[in-house]
Amino acid sequence: MPVFLKPSCTRHSFRSLASVKGRLASTKSSEHSSRILRAVQRRINERANIRSQLSEDMSSPQDIAKLRQLKDSEPLQKVWDKWTSALKVLEDLKPLLNDSDPAMRNLASEEAVELDEKLSIILKESFPSLLVPRSTTGDLSAMLELKSGVGGTESSLFLETLLRMYVRFSQSNSWKPTIVVNNENESGGIKDAIVEVKGSGAYDILRWETGIHRVQRVPATESGGRVHTSTVAVIVLPLIEEQDAQKEELFSMNDIKLEVMRARGAGGQHVNKTESAVRLTHIPSGITVSMQDERSQHQNKRRAFQVLSARLMGQKITREIAERRATKNSLIKSADRSEKIRTYNYAQERVTDHRLGLSIMNLTSVLDGDGLQQFTDALKKDSEDTAIEDMLEKH
Amino acid sequence: MRFHLPPAELRWLKSAAAESNRPLQALIQRRLNREPLQYILGTQPFGPLSLKTCRPTLIPRPETEDWVLTFSEHLSKYFSPLPSRPLTLLDLGTGTGCIPLLLCHLWPNSSLVATGVDISHAAVHLANHNAALCGISPSSFTAHLSDFIDSDFPNMQAIKPPYDILTSNPPYITASDYLQLSDDIAKYEDPIALIGGYDGLDYYRAIARLIARDGFLARRAVIALEVGHNQGAAVCDLIRPTGFLPTVWKDPWGKERTVIAHRR
C-alpha cells in the first residue's frame, strides 16, 4: 500500500537518516537544506565541545565567556533536540508503515505525515532563523524621511497617505512614531516629512522601505479622467540615541556650522516670535539639516543633530556593508535611494513590490490595514536568506 | 496690521485643542487677537524643561534659553558640584523661574540651592509651581515675594548671603521702546517685567548697589545679567566700580545679550 507523504518534505527529513543517505536526487532546494543541516550540526558539535571544556567548579574567567556562548546557542540546541527526537520517532515508525494490519498502517502513515510537517518547518524556518547572524542594527530605532517627487500636488497628496500608512504600521508593531517634520503643501498634501519611529527593531524592518514609491491613479484634481504617475521618495535611516552618537564618533563639533535663521530685530524682551529655525551644516560631507517644527531653539537644535547623526550613521552602515561583502545574492541590494521599489495602482487595487515581484491585490489593506506587513515579512525573509547564504558560503 | 497664522502655530494650536479638549476655533481667535502663543498653549520649552506660562508673567525667550545653557557649562569651569557643599544662587526678577530651574536641572541633584525673588505675586506662584512640575524640590529652589530695588531687600529673611552665583533677566526696555512694542507683548505681558525706567538701566543700578555690598556675594562669585541689545557697554560701566570684571556674550543672532562678571 502506498504511503502518502509529501515527497519534498520526506526527502529532507529522511535525508539526514544514514539509511537513506545518498539515495536521493540532489535538487537545489535539498542541497540548500543539507547545507543548513550541516551548519546546524557544526554549531551543535561546537556547543558540545565548549561544554566539555568547562571546568568542574566553573570558576575560571574563561568559563564565563563559555557560559555566555552556551547561553547564546541554547535556543538552537532546543530545536535540535526536537529535530532529533522527531527523527527518531519517524525511524521507529517505519516498520509500522508496512504492518499487516491496515488500520495500523493508516495510523502510522498519518503520524508520519504529521512528523514530516514538523520536521519540514524546523528545517525551513526554525533552523534558518536561528542561524542568521545577529543584526548589528537590530536594536535601533528608525527615522523615515519622505520627500515628494514627480507629480507636484498629487505627489504631496500621496505622501500624506504614505505617512499615515507608516504611522499606522509603526503603531501596530508597538513602536512609537512621532512626526517631527511636516511641511504642508499650500495646494494640498505634504511636501516632505520626517517621522521618528522609536522601538527596538524598527530600523531593521523599515529599512527596506527606502526607495521610490510610485502611485498610479486619476488625481482628484484631474478633470479629464487620465491616470497620472507620481512618486514619493522614502529614505529610512538608523536612529541612534545622543550618547551612542557620541560613542560612534560620527562627527566632530569642529566640523559643524550652526546657524540660527531669521533676524529677531532687537530680540530678548523686545520680541516674542514663535519660530526658532536652525540649520546645521556638516562641512566634510556637505550634509545640511534645517529644523523649524519644534517650539524652541534647543529642541530644534537637538532634532537637527538627531537627523544629522541618522544620516551619517546611514552612510556609515552603507559603507560597512559595501566593505564587508558584495551583495550579489540579495534581491534587495543595499538601499539604493533612486530605485523604484513599489507601485500603488488605484484602478487595479494593486500594490506591487518590484524587488520581490510580489503583488497584493488589495491596495486598501496595504494603506489602511495589515497589507504592508506581508511585504516587510517577505523582505525580511529575503534578507535573512541572503545572510544565511553568506554564512554558508564562508564554510 | 493683518496677522497671518503660521502653519506651525496652527499645528501646535490643533494639538493643544485636542489635548485639552478646548474648541480649536476659540484658540485661533485668541491668537488672532494677538495673545502670545505661549499663553494659549500654557507652556514653553526651555532647554530640556517644559515650563508653564501664564498671563501676565514674562514668557521665557530663546535668547535667555541660549545663554543659560552656555552659562551652565561656563560655571562648571569654576565650580565643581558637591552635594556636601552646595553652591548658592540668587535670581533677581525670577518670573517663571526659568533661569534657576534650568540650572538646577542641569546641575547634579542638590549641588545647587537657588532662591528666586519677584515683585509679582503671580510670578512667585508660577515659579514655585514650575519647580514642582520640573521635579525640583523646595530645598533646591524657592521663589519669594520681594522688591529687590528696595533698600531693605538684603535684610529680608529669605535672603541669605553670601551667594556664589547671581543671575538676573531684569526689566530692560526703555520707556520709549515700550511704546513701540507689538501688541502681543504690550497688551499681554506684565509691564513691570519689561520696563527698566527711562533709559532701561534702573534695575542694573540696583543690582550694582547690591553686589557692591560687603559680603553679599561670595569671594569667587560669578554674575550673569541679561541685557537689552544695545546695553552691554552701559551695564559693564555700572558693574566695573563694584570690583567685578565684566565681559559681554553675544546671542545666536549676533546681539550683545549677557554680561558675565567675575570678581577681579
TrEMBL record, chain A:
The keyword Cell membrane does not apply. One of its GO terms (biological process) is mitochondrial translation. Keywords: Methylation, Protein biosynthesis. Signal peptide: none annotated. GO terms for cellular component: mitochondrion. SMART domains: PCRF (SM00937). Coiled coil: none annotated. Residues 262-278 form the Prokaryotic-type class I peptide chain release factors domain. GO terms for molecular function: translation release factor activity. The keyword Cytoplasm does not apply. Transmembrane segments: none annotated. It comes from the Eukaryota. It holds the Pfam family PCRF. Belongs to the prokaryotic/mitochondrial release factor family. This is Prokaryotic-type class I peptide chain release factors domain-containing protein. It comes from Collybiopsis confluens.
Automatic annotation (TrEMBL), chain B:
Residues 20-42 form the Release factor glutamine methyltransferase N-terminal domain. Keywords: Methyltransferase, S-adenosyl-L-methionine, Transferase. GO terms for molecular function: peptide chain release factor N(5)-glutamine methyltransferase activity. InterPro entries: HemK-like, N5-glutamine_MTase, PrmC_N, SAM-dependent_MTases_sf, Small_mtfrase_dom. It catalyses: L-glutaminyl-[peptide chain release factor] + S-adenosyl-L-methionine = N(5)-methyl-L-glutaminyl-[peptide chain release factor] + S-adenosyl-L-homocysteine + H(+). One of its GO terms (cellular component) is mitochondrion. Signal peptide: none annotated. GO terms for biological process: methylation. CDD domains: AdoMet_MTases (cd02440). Its EC number is 2.1.1.297. PANTHER family: HEMK METHYLTRANSFERASE (PTHR18895), MTRF1L RELEASE FACTOR GLUTAMINE METHYLTRANSFERASE (PTHR18895:SF74). This is peptide chain release factor N(5)-glutamine methyltransferase. It comes from Collybiopsis confluens. The lineage of its organism: Eukaryota, Fungi, Dikarya, Basidiomycota, Agaricomycotina.
